[in-house]
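job 3f2a | input accepted
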Amino acid sequence: MHEITLCQRALEIIEQQAASHGAKRVTGVWLKVGAFSCVEPAALTFCFDLVCRGTLAEGCKLHVEEQQAECWCEHCQQYVHLVSQHVRRCPQCQSDTLRIVADDGLQIQRLEIDQE
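job 3f2a | predicted structure (116 res):
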Protein backbone atom coordinates (compact mmCIF):
# COMPACT_ATOMS: atom_id res chain seq x y z
CA MET A 1 0.00 0.00 0.00
CA HIS A 2 1.81 3.12 -1.23
CA GLU A 3 -0.88 5.45 0.13
CA ILE A 4 0.89 5.63 3.50
CA THR A 5 4.11 6.85 1.86
CA LEU A 6 2.20 9.41 -0.22
CA CYS A 7 0.45 10.68 2.90
CA GLN A 8 3.71 10.94 4.83
CA ARG A 9 5.28 12.99 2.05
CA ALA A 10 2.15 15.14 1.70
CA LEU A 11 2.19 15.80 5.45
CA GLU A 12 5.82 16.94 5.27
CA ILE A 13 4.88 19.48 2.61
CA ILE A 14 1.74 20.54 4.51
CA GLU A 15 3.75 21.10 7.69
CA GLN A 16 6.39 23.13 5.80
CA GLN A 17 3.75 25.34 4.20
CA ALA A 18 1.81 25.72 7.43
CA ALA A 19 4.96 26.75 9.33
CA SER A 20 5.94 29.27 6.67
CA HIS A 21 2.52 30.93 7.05
CA GLY A 22 2.53 30.94 10.86
CA ALA A 23 -0.22 28.35 11.22
CA LYS A 24 -1.10 26.96 14.61
CA ARG A 25 -3.33 24.34 13.06
CA VAL A 26 -4.32 22.94 9.66
CA THR A 27 -8.10 22.70 9.41
CA GLY A 28 -8.55 21.54 5.81
CA VAL A 29 -6.58 19.88 3.03
CA TRP A 30 -7.64 19.49 -0.61
CA LEU A 31 -5.91 16.73 -2.56
CA LYS A 32 -6.25 15.88 -6.24
CA VAL A 33 -5.70 12.23 -7.11
CA GLY A 34 -4.57 11.57 -10.67
CA ALA A 35 -6.69 9.17 -12.70
CA PHE A 36 -3.68 6.95 -13.38
CA SER A 37 -2.08 7.19 -9.92
CA CYS A 38 -3.28 3.79 -8.67
CA VAL A 39 -4.31 5.50 -5.43
CA GLU A 40 -7.36 4.13 -3.66
CA PRO A 41 -9.25 7.13 -2.17
CA ALA A 42 -10.57 5.17 0.84
CA ALA A 43 -7.07 3.94 1.68
CA LEU A 44 -5.71 7.46 1.17
CA THR A 45 -8.24 8.88 3.64
CA PHE A 46 -7.46 6.20 6.21
CA CYS A 47 -3.69 6.68 5.88
CA PHE A 48 -3.97 10.46 5.96
CA ASP A 49 -5.85 10.38 9.27
CA LEU A 50 -3.25 7.97 10.61
CA VAL A 51 -0.15 10.01 9.68
CA CYS A 52 -1.72 13.27 10.91
CA ARG A 53 -2.10 12.03 14.49
CA GLY A 54 -0.09 14.16 16.87
CA THR A 55 0.63 16.85 14.25
CA LEU A 56 -0.84 20.27 13.58
CA ALA A 57 -2.99 18.64 10.90
CA GLU A 58 -4.65 16.19 13.29
CA GLY A 59 -8.42 16.22 12.85
CA CYS A 60 -8.35 18.37 9.72
CA LYS A 61 -11.00 17.89 7.04
CA LEU A 62 -9.65 16.02 4.02
CA HIS A 63 -11.20 16.74 0.61
CA VAL A 64 -10.24 14.32 -2.15
CA GLU A 65 -10.92 15.09 -5.81
CA GLU A 66 -10.53 12.20 -8.21
CA GLN A 67 -9.41 13.24 -11.68
CA GLN A 68 -11.14 11.64 -14.65
CA ALA A 69 -9.19 9.45 -17.04
CA GLU A 70 -8.80 12.01 -19.83
CA CYS A 71 -7.04 11.25 -23.11
CA TRP A 72 -6.56 12.81 -26.55
CA CYS A 73 -7.78 10.60 -29.38
CA GLU A 74 -5.62 10.99 -32.47
CA HIS A 75 -8.34 9.48 -34.67
CA CYS A 76 -11.30 11.57 -33.40
CA GLN A 77 -9.13 14.65 -32.79
CA GLN A 78 -10.86 15.33 -29.47
CA TYR A 79 -10.46 14.83 -25.73
CA VAL A 80 -12.28 11.82 -24.38
CA HIS A 81 -12.86 10.36 -20.92
CA LEU A 82 -12.17 6.68 -20.58
CA VAL A 83 -14.90 4.53 -19.08
CA SER A 84 -12.23 2.54 -17.25
CA GLN A 85 -8.56 3.25 -16.63
CA HIS A 86 -7.82 -0.33 -17.63
CA VAL A 87 -9.46 -0.17 -21.07
CA ARG A 88 -7.39 2.20 -23.20
CA ARG A 89 -9.69 2.56 -26.19
CA CYS A 90 -11.55 5.62 -27.33
CA PRO A 91 -15.21 5.38 -26.26
CA GLN A 92 -16.20 7.19 -29.50
CA CYS A 93 -14.32 5.29 -32.23
CA GLN A 94 -12.62 2.40 -30.37
CA SER A 95 -9.19 3.57 -31.55
CA ASP A 96 -6.20 2.69 -29.38
CA THR A 97 -4.17 5.72 -30.52
CA LEU A 98 -4.73 7.65 -27.32
CA ARG A 99 -2.41 10.11 -25.62
CA ILE A 100 -2.97 10.20 -21.88
CA VAL A 101 -3.61 13.70 -20.57
CA ALA A 102 -4.67 12.79 -17.02
CA ASP A 103 -2.13 12.94 -14.24
CA ASP A 104 -0.63 9.93 -12.49
CA GLY A 105 0.26 11.66 -9.23
CA LEU A 106 -1.14 13.25 -6.12
CA GLN A 107 -1.31 17.04 -5.76
CA ILE A 108 -1.97 19.25 -2.77
CA GLN A 109 -4.41 21.77 -4.19
CA ARG A 110 -5.22 23.89 -1.13
CA LEU A 111 -4.65 24.20 2.60
CA GLU A 112 -6.89 25.83 5.17
CA ILE A 113 -5.08 26.99 8.29
CA ASP A 114 -5.82 28.56 11.65
CA GLN A 115 -3.29 31.20 12.69
CA GLU A 116 -4.72 31.77 16.17
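job 3f2a | The CA atoms of residues 70 and 81 lie 5 Å apart.
job 3f2a | closed
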